[in-house]
């Protein structure tokens, strides 16, 4: 039993990437070894609690790694933590995404910008979110320019994009939308 306590056994198949202890030394407070498993690479991101209801397992997304600018690697949501993790004093949920087509050039610890597609609309009109305002009756409206005069059109908002645009019903293609009126 005493000899068995001196043997380290890996819980999974993999490759040892770092040994933090030498023969005869007392075990360090951290891990004795660091190991890279043989499972495919995955991306972990932390998502704010206001956005987590939009994310579901199997949704697709992409990542542009800093090491490979201009290349978007496709991802798929594989796991969402049930409980929040405190990140910089803010509760966030860890989401794991698997590469749809892993590449040999990938390395552990690479960073980049990722996005998850939570919804998609085609053939819709969108305007900058700041163009939608409330009138004195509490209705959402968009101001449009008609023959040099500003008029109001009531709108119904739909899906919001990450680029600051919002889907709207109530305006027509070709309408000149007023985003800001200087007073």
Alpha carbon gyration radius? 25 Å
- Major sheet: size, sense and barrel closure? 6 strands, antiparallel
- The percent of residues in helical segments reads under 10%
What is the ordering of alpha helices and beta strands?
EEEEEEEEEEEEEEE
Report strand %.
over 45%
Helix count from the secondary structure assignment: 0
Could you say which structural class the secondary elements and strand pairing correspond to? Answer: mainly beta
- Low-confidence stretches are none
Mind explaining what this structure looks like?
The chain is an all-beta fold and 183 residues long. The chain contains no helices and 15 strands. The strands form 4 sheets. Strands 3, 4, 5, 6, 7 and 8 form a 6-stranded antiparallel sheet that branches. A hairpin with a 2-residue loop joins strand 6 and strand 7 (90-99). It is elongated. The mean pLDDT is 88.
Structure in a nutshell:
The chain is mainly beta. It is 0% helix and 45% strand.
Sum up the structure in keywords.
single chain; 183 residues; mainly beta; six-stranded antiparallel sheet; four-stranded antiparallel sheet; 15 strands
Blueprint (SSEs and pairs):
Elements: E1 14-19, E2 33-37, E3 42-48, E4 60-65, E5 72-80, E6 85-87, E7 90-99, E8 112-116, E9 126-128, E10 132-134, E11 140-146, E12 149-154, E13 156-160, E14 165-169, E15 176-178
Antiparallel strand pairs: 1-2, 3-7, 4-5, 4-8, 5-7, 6-7, 9-14, 10-11, 11-12, 11-15, 13-14
